[in-house]
User: Fold these one by one.
Assistant:
Number 1:
Amino acid sequence: MIRFYNAKIMTMDGGTQITEGELWTDGALISYIGETPAELPVFEREIDVHGNLLMPSFKNAHTHSAMSFLRSFAEDVPLQTWLFEKVFPYEDRLTPEDVYAFDRLSILEYLASGMTAAFDMYFFPESSAAAFTECGMRLVFCGSINGTAADVDRLNDQFQKFRHYHPLVNYRLGFHAEYTSDESLHRGVAALAQAEHEPVYTHISETKKEHEECIARHGASPAQYFESIGLWEYGGGGFHGVWFDEKDRAVYQRNGLWFVSCPCSNAKLASGIAPLKECFAEGVNLALGTDGPASNNALDMFREMYLGAVLQKLRHNDAAAIPAAEMLRAATVGSARAMGLTDCDVLAPGKQADLIVVDLHAANMQPAHHIPESLVLSGDRMNVRMTMCAGKILYLNGEYLIGVSPEEILRDTQARIVRLTD
Amino acid sequence: MIRFYNAKIMTMDGGTQITEGELWTDGALISYIGETPAELPVFEREIDVHGNLLMPSFKNAHTHSAMSFLRSFAEDVPLQTWLFEKVFPYEDRLTPEDVYAFDRLSILEYLASGMTAAFDMYFFPESSAAAFTECGMRLVFCGSINGTAADVDRLNDQFQKFRHYHPLVNYRLGFHAEYTSDESLHRGVAALAQAEHEPVYTHISETKKEHEECIARHGASPAQYFESIGLWEYGGGGFHGVWFDEKDRAVYQRNGLWFVSCPCSNAKLASGIAPLKECFAEGVNLALGTDGPASNNALDMFREMYLGAVLQKLRHNDAAAIPAAEMLRAATVGSARAMGLTDCDVLAPGKQADLIVVDLHAANMQPAHHIPESLVLSGDRMNVRMTMCAGKILYLNGEYLIGVSPEEILRDTQARIVRLTD
């Protein structure tokens, strides 16, 4: 059992109210939250939080972790050039060992930014499962097939293999996007989802071009077309949704789908500003993701929350467009639930102990008039003092406790970068 | 003499090329940059930079440092409500001792973010001069009078007092804004600037309302009106410029004025997105500022560079809208020159030793395909390992060397916040 005491605690179970007290963990679980009782059990470790904040960890609801090998490789170039000249040809060179190495590089950044779970779409799932479980971090695979109905078997194989693979690993059905697959694939995935009673996820309406071409092909936007073929009978969601209109949002609202926004990626690639204010007002479920490190370029949920909030102000010419606290909710509870991680979404006894300590005494967090707003508008991953996943401390005061040193991870990646990008 | 060796060095003297070698300081100045010579002098300190980056420090070309007391006090409210209900009434309560205390709080954040100079507009200049000089950081006051010609004497008094006040302190002529003063003040400041051969600075075209009301009052935008009355005969510049059109930019271009952009403040207050792409294309001098901590809410030049870059991509629907490296130049060389700090703008022998060490081995900075772009698109103040101003190390590996502990500064501010904001 680990005891955190002298803490401000924001459970996110409900709103963003903050209480003072302590939190205990027992194995992977939270066992107690409350005031200091008269009698204390014996703990294996007791941590004085010094009045700092205990809160649920961030969950990254959309990423391609191993794309860290292309971070800063090609900047300030148009999207099509970037994808077809600077991404795809280089991804072809990747080996399973490369994915393992570059996943670990991203895990360093996730943990330092207070993230304990990644909803990952990429190649070589065995490599990613090894990297994440060895480091102690959660991984939810999102299926990323493209092509035709013939590819659905591969999705099902991966789903059956990874859905009960490890306590830290899970799998959700998904495919890359409407524009990289045909109707037979979409209907095949819908049939699989219905048979398995499973949600489905995909890239959706990220660019105007893609959104409009789907309308030309199917007579409906991606969201409306997918609903019409029964893809979302058991829920799910989509990544980006930049070009959603009110009918698309209504599809999400009535199906309880997750709108996973990636503000930094949409900004860097000039895809646009997603309608988060409208989603919030209409009761659409919001989550946040970083997207891959080559299209962001940071893996930093503080920056996603910040950009998510301020871009709505600019888009609507209204400083009050969306409450900052809504971004905090999306980055924690929302993202966890979007990935199906309902056992580590909030802080409560019986839940998985996936939590962070945020330094409230750093200059940028003072004065602490309104802590939730400060986390979004002035918070910084520099303020993350501790990251715990499933009851294990993985990052503490700048040190990693993941069984491998950052130096070794960097050495491993640096040798590979020369081969991959020369 | 201090020796930094085993460094990557980006002098910013010209472009953003990076060399490997060492840099020495002697007192406040840089005395050597180059390869390791055959014979070395005796140093008082030798610092192994471990292959990390030595570069010019950031300079904050627009701020109101002591407004840190209102950080996170009122969020997600419209601009007018914010200013008139949540800022002005509380500023009236400030004492000189409060300004000293909240300046020191902001100095903690400046130094941790790699900033060594602030171009500050606020009340009680003696308090600010004390706070900055005691901590070893540069302060350039910007005159902030408002009202009528009768107020120009006060500006002149402050200018004469603070222009040669201390090696770390300087003063530039300025006034708050066109909309908070009348033509007699503008003409009075112009006459003073001409008599003293000095540049002039002011808030300008921050909001659409202010920009259009000036046109209604004077038949010209602020930039064009000020040029017509001879305000900028010896240069200067303006803060924000969000609503500038091509004629306004031409005024800046032909007078060599500084366009000081504050992207984060303009976003939080929904003022708009400044035309940085156009300024860059037309040869207008660019600098960056954080604005005050209540309208940002962070004092973080990494975030300003990032937002400055990505908002141009969104505004122009073009991922190649502005080179990321241009934001790096604005935040360092540009901001220094905007404030008149031409002796600490770049790294070169004979220049003031105002420089920082950036950790290139942190996960978010790897791989280092293109370092200038990484600094802007994935860099983070977490990566600042050292901040030196005038040859003195003020911040090193998370520790402050400023003669006062962060704990003491926090204690001092916390007692005041209760009185100021209850």
Number 2:
Amino acid sequence: MSSTRKRLVRAGVGGAVAIGTVALLAGTAFAQDEEEVVLTAGEEAAASVQAVLDNIWVLIAAVLVIFMQAGFALVEAGLTRAKSVSNIMAKNLMDFCVGVLAFAAVGFAFAFGPGGGFIGTEGWFLNSETFAEGWGNLSLPTFFLFQAAFAATAATIVSGAMAERTKFKSYFVYSFLITAFVYPIIVHWVWGGGWLSQLDTPYHDFAGSSVVHMVGGIAAAVGAAFLGPRIGKYTKDGKPRAIPGHSIPFAIIGVFILFVGWFGFNPGSELAADAAVPGIAVTTLLAGAAGGVVALLVVWLKEGKPDVAMAGNGVLAGLVGVTAGTAAVTNWGAVIIGSIAGILVVFAVFFFDRIKIDDPVGAVSVHGVCGAWGAIAVGLFAAEDSDFWKAGLFYGGGTSQLVSQIIGVLAIAAFTAVAMVIVFAALKATLGLRVSEEEEIEGLDVHEHGVPGYAPDIAMGESGGLASSKEMATT
Amino acid sequence: MSSTRKRLVRAGVGGAVAIGTVALLAGTAFAQDEEEVVLTAGEEAAASVQAVLDNIWVLIAAVLVIFMQAGFALVEAGLTRAKSVSNIMAKNLMDFCVGVLAFAAVGFAFAFGPGGGFIGTEGWFLNSETFAEGWGNLSLPTFFLFQAAFAATAATIVSGAMAERTKFKSYFVYSFLITAFVYPIIVHWVWGGGWLSQLDTPYHDFAGSSVVHMVGGIAAAVGAAFLGPRIGKYTKDGKPRAIPGHSIPFAIIGVFILFVGWFGFNPGSELAADAAVPGIAVTTLLAGAAGGVVALLVVWLKEGKPDVAMAGNGVLAGLVGVTAGTAAVTNWGAVIIGSIAGILVVFAVFFFDRIKIDDPVGAVSVHGVCGAWGAIAVGLFAAEDSDFWKAGLFYGGGTSQLVSQIIGVLAIAAFTAVAMVIVFAALKATLGLRVSEEEEIEGLDVHEHGVPGYAPDIAMGESGGLASSKEMATT
Amino acid sequence: MSSTRKRLVRAGVGGAVAIGTVALLAGTAFAQDEEEVVLTAGEEAAASVQAVLDNIWVLIAAVLVIFMQAGFALVEAGLTRAKSVSNIMAKNLMDFCVGVLAFAAVGFAFAFGPGGGFIGTEGWFLNSETFAEGWGNLSLPTFFLFQAAFAATAATIVSGAMAERTKFKSYFVYSFLITAFVYPIIVHWVWGGGWLSQLDTPYHDFAGSSVVHMVGGIAAAVGAAFLGPRIGKYTKDGKPRAIPGHSIPFAIIGVFILFVGWFGFNPGSELAADAAVPGIAVTTLLAGAAGGVVALLVVWLKEGKPDVAMAGNGVLAGLVGVTAGTAAVTNWGAVIIGSIAGILVVFAVFFFDRIKIDDPVGAVSVHGVCGAWGAIAVGLFAAEDSDFWKAGLFYGGGTSQLVSQIIGVLAIAAFTAVAMVIVFAALKATLGLRVSEEEEIEGLDVHEHGVPGYAPDIAMGESGGLASSKEMATT
């Protein structure tokens, strides 16, 4: 996601014009291309302000992305059972903490350090000399903050798919491995100057439909496959059973928080405060809304009821879908991409249920399937002109972009799948992946963490809480 | 909410002086008034940065407003019963998604498109040629994003008042109609160059006490009246019964989120990053705080207990109340407006209960009554000088502003009431508005959506969840 | 937190260089030091934009800090019992509302008004003449908004420690007293030009490890000590009993929200949009993550289970710990400070349990102990050069900073303890502090507030809700 590189890609695809050319003159990264330009003192002063603005904006965007951790935790908690809700919370809190530290220590260097086309090989522990040049106007701390938030997002997607049956210590180690090694390598390929960014028509994934979401979704699929389905998920005849989540309000509030966070995720990926940012926010908004409406209508037609959890996943599907092309597609393109994602997610959820990948929250469908769709969609819908009506819907540059997108999706999917098979196989062979049958049936909360998610007196008005307090008062 | 217009109004009323005059020179919208000015290269560069800053700030404000959707969902869920909580979530998620798409398709053009004094008649589907000039420094995507967030807010206010008894498909259609037609017409009158903005002393509603909140509140009253009260709300003698909400924590966290979102709602309505923005945030803060404290004290005196749900509604009442005058009143004015809103909301809640408008969350009182109060209050408290002590409390310009405010409130209320009667009458005659008695008693969640809000094993430590898992394990 | 003063301290300690020197030229506060400089029109225009940017950024940071109120409410609700959850919500909502009004009326003047070294004596009710100069580029409304959010934070820390047994009206009065008098005096000492900022080596607490958190934590300890432990907290033999919280999801979502809010709390305390801000965000991120991981590992080793509530408190401990030095320490320093805070919090929680300070949420340990640690740590870890590798880990300037830090911590702790003893003793003697035994056993919600936190039909699928609706339908 080097800003120079991304801007060039977008210029090639969408041709957006920045209001403030001063932004292009400000950063040292651009000095070599523009060395003849002499700025007046006033222009230099304005360029300094623009540089600060770029950093402040991306910092705020990073905070919005970090807020998505709360959204993921709520969606996952809401769509799973109460008896393992402390475990869900522990996993979500720890994959963020561990992920951030692992990414700071080595992941960031693997992703953005100088090196070959495959992996960065310098810059451990945020070495400020390695990264002295920054990224456009962004300083190392700003860029790291934003990227660390992304790394933690990729990590946490997996949590829901592996819910209700995974050993906590294995998940703890997994969090470290994906943010330290697996995710950074993919980032290096696409945003760190690696081979996918060096194709003749560079692979384009603006904000990470594939780099973040598909990586998380595939890791989730591998994890769920290694674990096997939850006890009781399938009847003796092999038919899937619905295991309803314990709190729809949690799930939908989580979706709202993720929607809010996505306005950091996508517009922040511009890595600058410029005129293109608001348009990115609008394509994000429209795709998410379209995904929600379409998924609701599809499941309503298919199953006879407007399933709200599916509508929530439809919103997320639309958002994941538009993430790769958010800066390159028209508003119409965004609505179409989101709508198709809203269809895909419904059928994908039923499909994975049928092939016995037990994914309690639909993470594989939302992030894996729609992440791949989003990256492919760039090759179909990236517009010559991002204006709403003027633009042709389909990419004018022929099929070369589409070919690059297919290459990229296949390569990322293959690498992630292989890497995660190694990770989960190693964990299974050493620490073990799955809890005991007894623990799974009784819930992970008390067994793994020593605390129930909901201590008894939640049921107000029942005698439980009252009696126990009275009892306590006299013993 | 055209920035030129609003700035003039505010200049006439409050006379705030912008720190950065450069902001006024930057936008093309101002070029015609200032055509003699020749800027140096440095000034032009600074104006470009200011233009970017304006867009980024309003985008961030829009994200805060979008976050309010989560706040509304939590307040409504918390103050209603668990058996219909999935339905509340579905309504809140869908009125946002449907509302955004409807507003993009036609609502925005009705609101801000060129046209007569009544309604815009051009600019469908965000036509970028129609809106090429932007709004001050704001580009079409920025302005649309902010306005779409507002439209969705107006739509979602109604959800709580119609809770626990409305057919989902009718609510779905309602969401489309209000954001596509009803709300945009009011916006056109006030912020889109329509007749209320053309009065000799233009009607002043800075951020939408009436345009957003009163419209939502009146639509809520009409909807609740058409539906009739929930089963069991009134005794055989016709006395109202309290039906307590199922989660006070949800309700109050919702209030906090709405408070946070209001810092986008009001300060963002400045539609620019300038020196007036922080003052708007402070009047917002003080009015919300005053509303909360006063409503708590009033209900404490009146009923003998400090009812926390009423305190939460008091905070919202104060915020709604100050929204129209937030940029035109002193800090003292804000405290007084918020305090009076905190009194009004308590008595209004009891009043609507008595006249058998069953509004489970108090939306009519908070948004309808206090929205009207806020718009009127502009005519009473708008200050010559917004400094805290120096300003006279009451508007110096005589009664002309007050007359305009009364005209505006009456016109908006009348139009909204008539339009919503037509909408709900049509829905009642076709799809039907109310669910069956059986469904209402058992809860809308399972009947309408096929999922309970809280699946059984939420009651940790009870045998339910455990037994069913064991049972599942063996069948 | 006067920006001039803080910048000087930081310059002396860390030596960060601002990208945009224009920022230094813009504010009137700097004019006296730079009076020979003549700016071109372009530079002046850029300085105006920078001034607006400074205000907008700090306003956004203030909104993030205000959002922390929701985080505190969720953490406290989650870690206490359901039967008093409405009371927790009422306290959190009201300490914010009351706190904001009290701080606007007198607290702000005590804190930042001109006066001696002990307390400000002018500027009541946000008198704009007293504060006409602003703070660097920040105007009175911006600076007040940020500081009011801080004052409310100090107030709300106490709520959790006094949970489940405090009379609401006494808490209401306490909220007023701490934000009107106690907290502002400490602020005056450190950020308002008072005696701790006038030491030869000025006391350094960048964002309030001691000023906000330790003050809150000590007030919490005094409050909990005055109240005595909850009924049932100790066995007849005097051994502490675990009273598990009623919702771990609430607690951990609260931690996430607090983490998000801290990106306003610490980076916003720079009081300007400049190049130092992102680095502050990164030390904040790393310390919070380290605190979470270390606390989890320590409690895992100590107690045998990875207690998620303790991990959440570990995150908060790391954040509290780094808050004083966030702008002065290296990334390594932040990781070490956070890690030590993560160890301290675990042992502190067990320690206070043992000495019969019943603090249901761990507020004394998190905010009191780790707040003190954070302030001391500035004397140990403030770096000559904030680059990651280049800097020596320990402070180069000898022991003078450490001595100042110890003086400051002791003085603040002593004053707060004495002041709060007076406050709580006075409340105990007049209104009374503790509810009746009956009320405590049955829960404060119904007795104090007249509403249960969770009305009966939360237990979906059980006959309760259904029956009562049916019953209601026929009576």
